[in-house]
Design goal:
The two termini are 28 Å apart. This protein is 36% helix and 16% strand. The protein has one domain: Rossmann fold. By secondary structure, it is α/β, with parallel strands linked by helices. Strands 1-2-4-3-5-6-7-8 form an eight-stranded mixed β-sheet, with helices on both faces. Strand 5, helix 2 and strand 6 form a beta-alpha-beta unit. Helix 1 packs across helix 2, helix 2 packs across helix 9 and helix 3 packs antiparallel against helix 4.
Length: 287
């Protein structure tokens, strides 16, 4: 895998999936988790047929090196890593796609370097740096949409214990179906890889105090962002709910919200064709 050096000297790795259509324009992809290696993104449901994907392994995950200072796992401290990758790729402006917890990282990078952003795609993403988050009540509301599923009863009880803070390890496994629009063999295999791909120490540090900076300052900076933003929500995702995603969009001047039907937290798995169409059409308009 190609590598580059972060400002603090940490060696970071990324994977490139070349476009089938010959379009050399890269799409810089930031994984969530938080702090899960980018391998779980795969080719984003075939999005690589439309764009060259550059998938970053965040520090301490996948093939990237472990920093000497664990405090640099904090979300705001990793903004410099994203900017260093842009410089390494030799790009004046970049298209960025961020999933889940990486939404905060992408937004903080855009707030600090707005002139470097050509477009921003946020997929079922968090936006704590803008003062928007989902609650336990939101989780329950989203979970209730799946009441007709055969796995619902057992998964619901496990989900309740997770958000009550009384969960055992088995509960996290039992609740996994809520994160997927279809709990099939592909979803199960995808879910099984999460523990091995996640740096738990880094995940604990990612949202530690101060990680998201000043909400007021971030809102002010991003209110002036002159770049198109796609906020893609899953109809059945428990966090963020579609209306939460719409709230984030209202804080960005050129943002649009699209809700992918029957999708959970990983919409490229639930309906690859639909996910690819939504994102590819947005990127074509943003070019």
């Amino acid at each position: 895998m190609p590598t580059f050096t972060a400002p603090d000297g940490t060696l970071l790795a990324y994977r490139v999936i070349e476009s089938d259509c010959g379009d050399g324009e890269p799409l810089l992809c930031l994984p969530g988790g938080p702090m899960r290696a980018a391998a779980y993104l795969g080719d984003l449901g075939g999005l690589a047929r439309h764009r060259r994907l550059v998938l970053l392994d965040l520090r301490g995950t996948g093939a990237s090196g472990t920093p000497s200072d664990p405090a640099t796992y904090r979300c705001d401290r990793q903004v410099a890593d994203v900017e260093a990758l842009r410089e390494h790729l030799g790009l004046d402006r970049i298209d960025v796609l961020a999933h889940s917890a990486a939404g905060d990282l992408a937004l903080l990078h855009a707030a600090r370097y707005p002139h470097r952003i050509r477009s921003l795609t946020l997929v079922t993403a968090r936006a704590r740096c803008l003062g928007v988050d989902f609650t336990v009540a939101h989780r329950h509301e989203g979970a209730a949409l799946r009441a007709g599923e055969p796995w619902f009863a057992a998964a619901r009880d496990a989900y309740e214990r997770i958000w009550a803070g009384t969960a055992a390890d088995a509960d996290w496994e039992a609740a996994l179906p809520f994160f997927y629009g279809r709990w099939d063999a592909a979803a199960k295999a995808h879910a099984e890889s999460e523990v091995a791909q996640t740096n738990e120490e880094a995940a604990r540090m990612y949202a530690s105090p101060g990680a998201f900076g000043s909400v007021a300052e971030n809102r002010t900076a991003l209110a002036a962002l002159d770049a198109p933003v796609l906020i893609l929500a899953g109809e059945w995702d428990t966090g963020p709910l579609p209306r939460t995603a719409a709230t984030v969009a209202s804080l960005l001047p050129r943002a649009e919200t699209v809700v992918q039907p029957a999708a959970g937290h990983h919409p490229w798995l639930d309906d690859p064709g639909q996910f690819t169409r939504i994102v590819a059409e947005f990127l074509a308009r943003a070019a």
